Amino acid sequence: MVERACVYMEEQKNHIEILEEAESLVIDAIAETMDLYGVTHSIGRLYGVLYFSEEPMTLNQMSNSLGMSKPSMSTGIHSLVDIEMVQKVWRKGERKDLYKAEKDFFESFLSFFCKKWDRELSVNMQAIEKATEKLNSLLDTPAVPDAIQQKARKDLQQLQDSTQYYLWLKKLVHAFRSKELFKMIEEIDCD
User: Fold this and answer.
1) Model confidence, pTM
2) What is the pLDDT of residue 68?
3) Rounded to whole angstroms, how far apart are CA atoms 74 and 83?
4) Which GO terms describe its molecular function (predicted)?
5) Structural domain boundaries of the chain?
6) pLDDT digit string (tens) for 117-137?
7) CB 86 within 8 A of CB 37
8) Under DSSP, is residue 144 helix (H, G, I), strand (E, B) or coil?
9) Does domain 2-102 have CATH number 3.40.50.970?
10) Which residues contact 149 (CB under 8 A, 6 or more apart)?
């Protein structure tokens, strides 16, 4: 009887090791690719640990799991919260902050890239608008030499061309947020 119990425990230990190895493979891959999101390898590992955690974790739990200092953990978790890959959660009776990973990669992708593209649109369209005003003022001023007016016309054309890209990007962001693009992609047969 004792021998069977030992065999059973050994089998359980082997199963747990295989499970941990499988999770570790994915955590390592996530950590390796997190540079896309502007975060370090260690913060990527933090996300990976939270991704596989069935319950929200405190900073202390994360620190113990990864062997990182609590200040490093705090900085890392705030980076992940900022890019909406991790959310702070509340649990009745819990005094410490709890965090859980966004496990839907579609949502993470949408949130992260749409936010970045929105910023790109806003910054560049504002600059194009202001630059266009200045270039038009050069074209409307008779005393401006022909060479400068020619360059101003070329610059305006370039700005109009780049505006087409930003209008396309705006449509792309809308297609992602409305999930229209997802529907189109699902319909494509990749076999």
Assistant:
1) 0.75
2) 86
3) 15
4) DNA binding
5) 2-102, 106-187
6) 999 999 999 999 999 999 999
7) no
8) coil
9) no
10) 138, 139
